[in-house]
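Progress against Task 2.4 (sequence-to-structure conversion) is shown through the following example record, which the project officer requested during the mid-term review.
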Amino acid sequence: MANYTAADIKALRERTGAGMMDVKKALDEANGDADKAMELIRIKGLKGATKREGRSTAEGLVAAAVENGVGVMVEINCETDFVAKAAPFIDFSNKVLATAISSGVSDVEALLAVDVDGKPMSEVVIETGALLGEKVAIRRLARVEGATVDAYLHKTSKDLPAQVGVLFAVDGDNQEVAHDVAVHIAAMSPTVLSRDEIAAETVESERRIAAETAQAEGKPEAAMTKIVEGRLTGFFKEMVLVDQAFAKDSKKSVGAVLEEAGVKAVAFARFRVGA
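Structure tokens generated for the chain above:
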């Protein structure tokens, strides 16, 4: 019998994020040598990289940081929540974020081409997947700049890394309100910053749907314009950040809160793992 214990299995699972049977097989083959077993797991993973290409990656985490008025956020995906909370996956995600910050790239394609310790990030992704025994992917990258930028990360489960991330920038010096609005964005999921970011065709389509719905409901013709515009306003309040009711004080809009604070919204980005 190989010379290892249940504690050794647990420790190697935490190091690699691999399944229990894969860890036991590797320890058996390595006669209990944890470092050799880890190498075997990695080699096996590289051989299986092609088979993993078509797999779904619905789990993972969001990581973000702000440096010198620039916020950077990445979404890194894997296949299972077990791997999402494994130390190697978290370490990899931190490396991806650090590389995105230092390189200054603004999209995933460019990030995958960045050199990391003598190899492109795309190879690091494959090697990490080999180590973990799952498909790993860098899904999204966002950069947000402003006089004040807040990065907010939210855990939807206490046992997992952050699943929701937000970057929010304003044009003045007010970290408190920037943070409050970032938390609001995480909770309320706006789609755009302001109304002018919504295509005119979309607005007209919503207006037509509102009119047809009101007619089908038998609303009086005299009140039709007011009803339609009211429903269109409701659409804007759902989609547009500055029009939304502020989560901390629903009597005020986000735009009003920012105006009272003496700043204007510049940009935001919101990621939710798998969404």
